[in-house]
Amino acid sequence: MGFSVSGSTAILFIAMFVSFGVMYTASYNGFERVSDAKGEEMDQMLTQRNTELNITDTSYSGGNLTVTVNNTGSTSLDIEDTDVLVNGSYVTDSDIEARDVDGDVNTTLWLPGETLTVKVNVASPARVKIVTTAGVADTEVL
Questions:
Q1: How far apart are CA 129 and CA 134, in angstroms?
Q2: Could you tell me how far CA 112 lies from the centroid of its own chain?
Q3: Which of 14, 63, 85, 135 could be joined to 129 by an S-S link, Cβ 3.0–4.6 Å?
């Protein structure tokens, strides 16, 4: 065996070693991303299972719809991430006149056992739906 055969064998060995290193790194990073995504999905499912709400009262007077909702689950919710739909249409923040948790208008946190009251400017509502960040919702037909 001459030098050219030994040199080319060494070059092929080094190339295989480098390509294996690149392949291993890419595979490991892909596996890690999938594992992280599955973990986040499990956390979201747990939050969804622990979230529950109940519309306890609705009233409509003079163009204002008032909805009272209890957080009956064990998850703390953000009222700014809680959506209101009236007659199947999304209510924007500009249509929400007031929002408070147990009378406190300065909080954005809606803890378990607390009551959220939302006042919405809307004409002739027939149905209202409250949807949380986790996708849990309650609907009331007026």
A1: 14
A2: 17
A3: 85
DSSP-derived secondary structure letter, 135: S
The structural domains of the chain, with segments of one domain joined by +, span: 1-50, 53-141
Residue 116 CB neighbour total at 10 angstroms = 20
Q: Which residue, 118, 112, 121, is CA-closest to 82?
A: 118
Cross-strand partners of 118: 67, 99
Q: Are 60 and 67 in contact (CB under 8 A)?
A: no
pTM: 0.75
pLDDT digit string, tens, across residues 30-73 = 889 999 999 999 999 999 999 999 999 999 998 899 999 999 99
Q: Does domain 53-141 have CATH number 3.90.1150?
A: no
Supply the DSSP string of 33-70, one letter for each residue.
Answer: HHHHHHHHHHHHHHHHHH--EEEEEEEEETTEEEEEEE
